[in-house]
Design a protein that fits this description.
14% strand; 324 residues; 11 helices; six-stranded parallel sheet
Length: 324
Amino acid sequence: MFSLKSNRPELEISIGVGNWAKPLLQNNPDIDDVICCNAPWHNKQNCFYPANSPKTFLTGLFYVLFSRESHAISKRRFSHGIDVLGSRQGSWLLRKAKIRNRYGVKGYAGGDKWCQKFITYKNDRNVISANLKFADFLGINPTTEARPRIYLTKQELVEGKNVWTNTDGKIRRIVIAPGGGFEEKCWGNNNYTELVSKLSQVTAHEIIIVGSKEDSSRISLPSSKKIKNLCGKTSLRKTASVIKNADLVINNSSVAMHLAGTFSIPSITLLGGFYDNASLHHKQWGYPESLVLGKETNVGINKITEVDEVLSEVEAMMKRKIMN
């Protein structure tokens, strides 16, 4: 949104997101309005069936035709609409709202046939960089860095900093986020338990566990003053502030990876068995300072990353940070 508003300040920009994501858009000067759009497709919060199943088709169609949110969007009479995902249901929603200029994605989830213009999906291209190309359709040449933007208040920044107890610059602050939307995509609770245990034994670094209330029991934590479990105890924005004040984030492929990327904090994303190509995942979703570890079946690596491999990478990243 930054590249649109900064180049065309006269535009009125609204963004539709699920309820869970609305807090991340607070205080954002590049957006005029945030719209509730809890769409039941390609969304782990609201989609309870496989993406291309008949049930998802029907629930998506019902949402587009009859939901209050869909009707509310139609009443706004938008002139342009962008479906950044590129889904059939997203394009239907734009058509239902009688949006004349509809932009989508070709080659991902089938929504391009109902759009006037579209970008082409490439599985080896960064998703944020690809989405910036929508600005071309509005005559804008985007120059902004391909990162999310979260605008924390001064108070939120202080609160996130105060969560950490260490002031010694030699002791690093590590956030671990063991949660994720789908178990098969996660590195595994047992792996995270072993990792935290070994980290607490071999390093002096301070460790904070973040996530939802449901994530609080994912890791069996050893008794240590160096470890603090904040799962279910912080809002999404406060979690973002905690991460902004960290030196390293270790996570599944989840929102924590993008919170780290927002603030250019180095991260290690640990993929579960669902993913076959960690390098490709990094190209799609990673950031310059991030590392993605997992299977690389194209070169014969068919197992997910071992705990000791992660420990070696943590040590290497911490040394690089000290040197920098």
